[in-house]
Design goal:
Blueprint: H1 3-9, E1 19-20, E2 22-38, E3 41-52, E4 57-58, E5 62-69, E6 74-79, E7 82-84, E8 90-99, E9 102-109, E10 115-119, E11 122-126, E12 130-138, E13 143-150, E14 155-159, E15 163-165, E16 171-188, E17 195-199, E18 203-207, E19 210-219, E20 223-229, E21 235-237, E22 243-245, E23 252-259, E24 271-273, E25 302-304, E26 307-312, E27 317-322, E28 333-335, E29 355-360, E30 365-369, E31 374-378, E32 409-411, E33 433-437, E34 440-445, E35 450-454, E36 466-468, E37 495-500, E38 505-509, E39 514-518, E40 531-533, E41 556-561, E42 566-570, E43 573-577, E44 590-592, E45 616-619, E46 622-627, E47 632-637
Length: 646
């Protein structure tokens, strides 16, 4: 029988020379790796452990183990790494490694003065930028600490690390010094009460009304965030802006606080803007256009930086008032027209066509134009007494000629000229509302049946980050084309307003007779809402003939969150939820404009309240309600007795 046949029949056959492995022990290789070579074989080793090459060698073979890739932070040598296989496995190869000494080096940047640091108990003084060795000869596991003893007078300094444990590599510590800035602002509306404000969880103050400045120093490039705590129970407070990054122009923070709103049925307003009294409802006070009247104001008034902005859509202008009006004050400036006597619609840059709302982040102004299907944006708040290009004669104005000083750019069109509506990431169709809040920017793109969200205030031709109501930016059908009376949590049908309180997002879904609520800011397009108001659930649709009640909406047009309360305009009434709604179908708590929550008859008495409540604004402890059918804005005080708030 042949040798080959024997080997094929036996499970265990000693055919050819016996085979043996080569291996050994690695020592001292802490937190690092080395690669060994044996012929064509490569083996990665680390730590302190035994190792063995996988492919054995024949008895009598010569072997040599070499260091193919040395470790980065150790010095190593091989011992007993070559020889001849002599009838047994080789396990005597040794890889012996020792860590290299580690050096700590400090890099100082931007210094303008004298900087004194403490390094492991020893003070060190620096007077100019450069690289400074702190200590050498450290080994892995050693600890070090750095602390600030003295900064230059007008600077603050930051370190990439103030303490640490030495590893196996040299350590570079960077200390950057720059002009020091202190974040501050103003608290208002608290009276004798106080509120707590925390800065970056590193500093906090308990503050009453007045100006404040945090002692904590910041430098250019630092991010900051403010949070409220210990807010008085009967008050609502907001921070604007609540976060940002320090630049050469540090923002001034506003913390307005007001008592929570309480409404009574058919409550009388305390003031009216745009009419001489509560009985008059004719556009422009029944006369010629001027600086003290409106024609169907529908959006919420905006109060920012000492001025109030009110969109006057059928006069195709925005009126600007000095301070916060509560009666028939006179506007001091306007946008969209050459002067106070003109009311022509225009499509040229700076002209306006049905401006229905305004918004601001405290520095910029956005005007939504329903007729021009665009958002006009001023990069600085316009407050001048009269725009350039004013004229004394109606014959001299041309709505198709650019008006200066106009906006800095527009959203909704690829250029500054008027264009047809469109459905895309850069086009709008009959937008009804714009909102700038907590660093975000929102547009109710009504006839495209969607809400657009930018995560920061947009620049020219910036595409939105998220679209709601549609799965993407290219679709614009009502309820995504699935039927006007078959909504889901992801559908919208003619959304007309948006409100964001820093946490929750509210959308007036006018066509579906409801308000949708997202518990947090959506970060993905098409995200479904979390709950609904005005319907029992997210897939219901009340018929218009169903009985009216506190948990049903007829045709909501505007929504406004104060942060702790929610207001909704619903045909002939304003509904108030005295706390944040926590469940779908939750009924409203109070009503304005009707005798009770089960009534919705059109109002015929203009002195008793709004004829057609629309835009809502909660400003400095008063409620402002735009009343387009009355050509006015009504002003209300809270009806709650002191101490009676929830």
């Amino acid at each position: 029988m042949s040798r080959a046949l024997v080997c094929s029949l036996l499970a265990l056959c000693a055919c050819g020379p016996p085979l043996f492995t080569v291996g050994g022990q690695a020592e001292g290789l802490s937190g690092d790796t080395a690669v060994l070579r044996l012929g064509d074989q490569r083996l990665e080793v680390s730590g302190t452990a035994s190792f063995s090459f996988s492919d054995p060698l024949e008895d009598g073979s010569d072997f040599e183990v070499t260091l193919a890739v040395p470790p980065r932070h150790h010095d190593c040598e091989l011992r007993d790494a070559e020889g001849t296989i002599q009838g047994q496995d080789v396990s005597t190869v040794r890889l012996i490694c020792t860590p290299r000494d580690v050096e700590l080096v400090l890099r100082v940047q931007g210094l303008d003065g004298e900087l004194v640091l403490d390094f492991d108990g020893a003070p060190l003084t620096f007077q100019q930028d450069g690289f400074y060795p702190l200590q050498g000869g450290l080994s892995a596991g050693d600890t070090w600490s750095l602390s600030l003893l003295e900064e230059p007078e007008s600077q603050s300094c930051r370190s990439t690390a103030w303490q640490g444990q030495v590893g196996t590599a040299d350590v570079l510590i960077s200390v950057r010094c720059a002009q020091a800035r202190n974040l501050g602002g103003t608290v208002s509306g608290l009276g004798a009460q106080t509120v707590g404000i925390a800065l970056d969880q590193t500093a906090s103050r308990t503050l009453g009304d007045g100006d404040f400045v945090f002692d904590h120093k910041l430098i250019e490039g630092d991010r900051w965030q403010l949070q409220l705590f210990d807010v008085p129970e009967a008050y609502g407070c907001r921070i604007f802006p609540s976060s940002g990054r320090i630049t050469d122009r540090s923002p001034r923070v506003r913390v307005p606080c007001v008592r929570l709103l309480y409404l009574e049925p058919e409550q009388s307003p305390i003031g009216v803007i745009g009419q001489p009294d509560l009985l008059q409802i004719a556009p422009h006070r029944g006369g010629e256009p001027g600086s003290d009247g409106f024609d169907a104001p529908i959006g919420a008034p905006l109060w920012v930086d000492g001025h109030t902005y009110i969109a006057d859509p059928l006069s195709h202008r925005v009126l600007i008032f000095e301070g916060l009006p509560t009666s028939s004050d006179t506007a001091v400036a306007l946008l969209g027209q050459d002067d106070m006597d003109h009311v022509e619609p225009g499509g040229a840059f700076g002209r306006l066509n049905e401006p229905v709302g305004v918004a601001s982040d405290g520095q910029r102004l956005a005007v939504v134009e329903r007729g021009n299907h665009r958002i006009s944006v001023w990069s600085e708040l316009p407050t001048s007494a009269e725009p350039e290009g004013e004229s004394d004669s109606a014959d001299e104005t041309d709505p198709e000629e650019p008006l200066g000083p106009g906006p800095h750019f527009v959203l909704g069109h690829p250029n500054e000229d008027p264009a047809e509506p469109g459905c895309s990431a850069s086009r709008l169709n009959g937008p009804s509302a714009v909102e700038a809040a907590y660093g975000r920017f929102f547009v109710a793109d009504t006839l495209n049946n969607r809400v657009l969200i930018w995560f920061s205030f947009p620049s020219a031709r910036t595409s939105p980050d998220v679209v709601l109501g549609q799965p993407n930016r290219a679709l614009c059908e009502p309820n995504q084309g699935e039927g006007e009376d078959e909504p889901t949590a992801a559908h919208l049908w003619h959304p007309t307003d948006v409100s964001f309180d820093g946490q929750r997002l509210y959308v007036a879904d006018h066509g579906n007779r409801r308000v949708l609520v997202w518990n947090s800011l959506p970060t993905q397009s098409g995200r479904p809402a979390d709950r609904v108001l005005g319907q029992p659930d997210l897939e219901s649709y009340f018929d218009e003939d169903d009985p009216i009640d506190a948990d049903r909406l007829i045709a909501p047009t505007h929504v406004h969150s104060t942060g702790r309360q929610l207001l909704v305009s619903d045909t002939s009434r304003v509904l108030l939820w005295r706390g944040r709604p926590s469940s779908s179908g939750q009924p409203a708590d109070q009503v304005l404009g009707q005798p009770d929550l089960q009534s919705s008859d059109p109002r015929v008495d203009p002195a008793g309240g709004p004829l057609s409540p629309a835009g809502l604004a909660w400003i400095e402890g008063r409620l402002y309600v735009s009343d387009p059918d009355g050509a006015r804005v009504l002003v209300y005080d809270s009806a709650a007795p002191h101490g009676d708030e929830d």
